[in-house]
Amino acid sequence: MKILIKKATILDPSSKHNLQEKDLLIENGIIQSIKDSITDSEAEIIEAKNLHLSQGWTDLNARFGEPGNEYKEDLNSGMKAAAQGGFTHIALMPSTEPCIQSKAELSYILHQSSHNIVDLHPIGALTENRKGEQITEMYDMHQNGAFAFSDDKRSIANASLMKIALLYAKNFDGLIMSYSSEAKIADKGQMNEGVTSTKLGLKGIPALAEELQLTRDLQLCEYTEAKMHFSTISTAQSVNLIREAKAKGLNITADTSSYHLLLDDTLLESFNSNLKVKPPLRSTADIEALKEGLKDGTLDVICSDHYPQNIENKKCEFNIADFGIINLETSFSAANTALNGQIDISDIVEKLTNSPKGILGLDSQIIEEGNLADITLFDPLLKWTYLEKDIQSKSKNSPFIGTEFTGKTIAIVNNGQMSRCN
Helix, strand, coil proportions of the chain in percent (round to 5)? Predict the structure, then answer.
């Protein structure tokens, strides 16, 4: 298969072609040529106004329902959604039924997704059945394809268990990904605690719940001298805590979701259950702090926090609706719309490429002749509207339906395959 990409601005600081407009010829999954102009009558052509090109994007925080909840999202529909959103690599959280906690589940995920244009990188459960009581056989999972370990949206209440897990993972350079929320303080909360929650009469989830758990885990990282990644940071004080910890030299990284950069808690006055997420949408002051954290490198990655929910779990009373939204298809566009004019597009792309790949330990495929073609193509200025009919995910639980975004993916190339986006 030959693919000819015409007049694309390359965004890859590791490449000698960075910030240059070039043609690229790809054959059998390899970048054969990068020149000012290439002609090949046999190649399938990708061209678009204001076309940009980077290394393939990596998402650090997504959930597919398979196995167990295929009616919400199966591997095939999840990978289609990822491709639609411009992602060639997905870190898959272990919250399936059964959860990903042994060689058997890892093998199933890896086998089912092999030879696809999107590469799946399964995250193993940190504790057995994600109950927070007994750590899993992390080393065995590490040997069989687990890229990191997490209990997903369940924080580890037992500090001693987390300390043991950090020391255990440290022995084989394993990575623990932590969701910060002190369960007793966040218990039964529906949205961010603040003026809007008081006005609506909804039980709030205070910023303190995130910050207490984060403070404890940062202290455990310092004590054990182990590494840890903090998922979906959402409050201004959390950003400050991570900034201070990095200044002290702790071996930590952190991400925030793209939708937390664009949506604030006042939107819940609509009682739209598709805005019910975990961590909750926060205040505009928190959003500004998240943006500043991305600017100065405190926050390393922008993730989708893709969380499919079927219609029965969302089209119901707000208090009983499940948390989560789908966001793989809109993640880049939401981030780019929120950050447009505030953070350079090269820096946004860095949060989707080299930073998450480095955290997972994936090889970066630099945009150079002779290298594998692992590429995302996009237009950072294109305005478009997200429509329900275009959704590739099985679930439709998105607050963005009907939203006009700035920035859209055009196509991806990976594993010798090409997929155009709608």
Answer: 30, 25, 45
